[in-house]
Design goal:
It contains 14 helices and 16 strands. With 438 residues, it is of the alpha/beta class. It folds into two domains: 205 residues, Acetylglutamate kinase-like (Carbamate kinase), CATH 3.40.1160; 147 residues, 2-Layer Sandwich (VC0802-like), CATH 3.30.2130.10. It is globular, with a radius of gyration of 24 Å. The structure holds adenosine-5'-diphosphate, aspartic acid and magnesium ion.
């Protein structure tokens, strides 16, 4: 029988009203058999996600405070949903077990994961689907990385035993059985894992926007929906801040070549975005989208005659590696080399890095500039298209924005520019307006 795997995000499952929309979507298509659920998200702008409430609860327990005031608010969120759906179902026993575990100092990941665990139990009861606990079918290795093959072997067997099921997102288990979560937003990854294990024809990712938009809707007013995007383009955009889909969510489905369809729970009639292995049609706007992130620093290293010193780059990168820092970009000139890193990764160790860099490289001058934003202009149709970079730079020049760094990979799939953080919104808007004409 044909099968679709679905994932509903936090805002799609934040209240009873949203649960009703979800049930209507699931029931509208008989092949929608496996559903991954997030924890209840925000019901309105000022609301708090249940996952955040759970992290607070964990912190309180660690400080040996009474967790009751924290946990009772969480219970209330679930009980409100259960009663408004008219379900003859209680989570009271689960609440007691979880409270006991948290106050007896169980792990932070276990605590955070209970948001999806409880919500999935409610959704399974409401849909009349089976409940499959992710701890029995999603596994991490001893070193904390996701164990893709073991998971796929076990989970595909489990799914065969359940014609229809709800599976909580965000977590799995370690070899010793303890619960471990993915990074924030990780239910998108679970959805992808389930789609692969079910050999689904499509992975539908249901959220609160009508697909992947050409730019962040919080920064650019009313950006267009991207109809079709490739896995590679999506990876570039999501890594660079288009957070609608977790940037690691494409890996499981990519292997199985299952397309992802991003859809809007609040507007199910809209077709959303299809994410596919390859796209045969070029993009009408040349660029597919633009995304960015703030919070980067640039370490500048100057040394005369650097270009003729064999192994200079290796010494620089060794210092970065010694401090366990990941670097984003490595722009360089004849006598200068720069390393772009996330500010949060170097903040506490910046002096150590500079001192060791001086010692190891014998540089003439080293400084660190903070407040850098990175913006990626991404598009399969930019490949071998003359003039795209020129248009980006002209648009930024005309908007009075100074470009501090430029990077283009040889795939030509993206152009990355570094600008001052205060120019971030202006940069996204200038690029969007240059390429998208209504
Ligand atoms: P969910 O709770 O369903 O997982 P998220 O909040 O994680 O949803 O992701 C959806 C949000 O991503 C949107 O509400 C939007 O504000 C934000 N977003 C950022 N960049 C983009 C983009 N390029 N396209 C669509 N949404 C984006
Ligand atoms: N609930 C988790 C979070 O808030 C995972 C998710 O929503 O995807 O990050
Ligand atoms: Mg999300």
């Amino acid at each position: 029988m044909a099968v679709k795997a679905l994932k509903f995000g936090g805002s799609s499952l934040a209240s009873a009203e949203q649960f009703k929309k979800v049930a209507e979507i699931v029931k509208a298509d008989d092949t929608r058999r496996y559903v991954v659920a997030s924890a209840p998200g925000k019901r309105s702008a000022g609301d708090i996600k249940v996952t955040d409430m759970l992290y607070e609860c964990f912190k309180a327990a660690r400080k040996k405070q009474d967790i009751e005031p924290y946990f009772s608010k969480i219970e209330q969120r679930y009980n409100d949903i259960i009663s408004a759906l008219g379900l003859n179902f209680s989570l009271d026993e689960e609440f007691e077990k979880i409270k006991f575990a948290i106050s007896h100092h169980v792990g932070e990941d276990y605590t955070a994961s209970r948001g999806e665990y409880l919500n999935s139990m409610i959704l399974a009861a409401y849909l009349g689907y089976d409940f499959i606990d992710a701890e029995n079918g999603i596994f991490f290795k001893e070193n904390g990385t996701f164990d893709s093959e073991h998971t796929n072997d076990v989970l595909s067997e489990i799914l065969k035993e359940h014609e229809r099921a709800v599976i909580p997102g965000f977590y799995g288990s370690m070899p010793n059985g303890t619960i471990k979560t993915f990074s924030r937003g990780g239910s998108d990854i679970t959805g992808s894992i389930v789609a692969r294990a079910a050999d689904a024809e499509v992975y539908e990712n249901w959220t609160d926007v009508s697909g992947m938009l050409m730019a962040d809707p919080r920064v650019v007013n009313n950006p267009k929906v991207i109809n079709v995007i490739t896995y590679s383009e999506l990876r570039e955009l999501s890594y660079m801040g288009a957070t609608v889909l977790h940037d690691e969510a494409i890996f499981p489905v990519r292997e199985a070549r299952i397309p992802i369809n991003i859809r809007n729970t609040n507007a199910p009639e809209e077709h959303g975005t299809m994410i596919v292995p390859f796209a045969d049609k070029p993009n009408e706007n040349i660029i597919t989208g633009v995304a960015g992130k703030v919070g980067f620093s640039i370490i500048n290293i100057d040394k005369s005659m650097m270009n003729s010193e064999v192994g200079f780059g290796k010494k620089v990168l060794k210092v970065i590696e010694n401090h366990d820092v990941c670097f984003e970009h490595l722009p360089s000139g004849i006598d200068t080399m720069s390393v772009v890193v996330s500010t949060s990764e170097i903040d506490a160790i910046r002096e150590d890095i500079v001192n060791e860099m001086f010692r190891k490289t014998k540089a003439d001058f080293i400084n660190i500039e903070d407040g850098l934003a990175l913006v990626a202009v991404v598009g399969r149709s930019m490949v071998q298209q003359v003039g795209t970079a020129g248009r980006v730079f002209t648009a930024l020049g005309n908007a009075g924005i100074n470009i501090k760094m430029i990077d283009q990979g040889s795939s030509e799939l993206s152009i990355i520019v570094g600008v001052k953080e205060e120019d971030y919104a202006k940069t996204l808007n200038a690029i969007y307006t240059e390429f998208v004409k209504d």
